[in-house]
Amino acid sequence: MNATEQAIDTPGAARSGSVKQTLFGRFMLPDMSEHACQVNSITIDGATFLTTLPVPPGLTIVAYLEEVGRIEATSANPVDGGFQVTFNLTGARRDRFETRLKWLNQKETGQTIEDRRHTRYEPKEKQSQITMPDGREYACEVVDISLSGAAVKVEVMPSLGTYILLGKMRGRVVRYLESGIAIEFVKLLDRNQLSDTVR
């Protein structure tokens, strides 16, 4: 059995399920060095990191994973082609991460609520801006938009869960994209708002 076939046997795996898809990301070691990795067999309690770098057990690492964002972990047992990590999440962080895993599992089978309910459209006017909670503004490009959210290209990467303004529409950052973020609106747009989208 190779690393891509291994899963961490944890209580969380039974409750949340293991995300089968491979995610790409990077991780930072205590010496502040950064390294690319592929991540699979993700559960609420851990994952397998595939990388050419040998990492001894017991190190605190910070990882940035597509679709997940920033997460802290501890390196564990080495496996073929990489190493396992354990997540030490509690309280609200654990709840948010569990919600993210459920979303990823739904996405694998094309069953996310947003995909079922709301069609995405390419806006006529793509240039807009996001406003951070502290008032900072950044230019962005709206890739697509629906009644419930939007995908935007932007240089900054707010933390998952951050409430921001896209134009005049309030929403929160729900996941990371290859070159930006996905925003879920606090209130669904009506059809008129969608037709008169982001300016």
Fraction in helix: 10-25%
Reading the helices and strands in chain order gives HEEEEEEHHEEEEEEH
Distance between the termini: 52 Å
Total beta strands: 12
- Mean pLDDT, as a whole number? 79
Number of helices, counting only DSSP H or I runs of 4 residues or more: 4
Fraction in beta strands: 35-45%
* Order of strands, widest sheet: 1-2-3-6-5-4
What does the overall shape look like?
A: elongated
The low-confidence parts are 1-16, 111-116
Structural class of the secondary elements?
alpha+beta
Task: Quickly describe the structure.
The chain is of the alpha+beta class and 199 residues long.
Description:
The protein is of the alpha+beta class and 199 residues long. It has four helices and twelve strands. The strands form two sheets. It has a six-stranded antiparallel β-barrel with strand order 1-2-3-6-5-4. It has a six-stranded antiparallel beta barrel with strand order 7-8-9-12-11-10. The protein is elongated, with a radius of gyration of 18 Å. The protein starts with 10 loop residues before the first helix and ends with a helix. The N terminus is likely disordered.
Layout of helices and strands:
Layout lengths: L10 H6 L6 E6 L5 E7 L5 E5 L9 E6 L3 E11 L2 E6 L3 H18 L4 H5 L9 E5 L5 E9 L3 E5 L9 E4 L2 E9 L2 E6 L5 H5 L4
Antiparallel strand pairs: 1-2, 1-4, 2-3, 3-6, 4-5, 5-6, 7-8, 7-10, 8-9, 9-12, 10-11, 11-12
Tag the structure with descriptive keywords.
199 residues; 17% helix; elongated; disordered N terminus
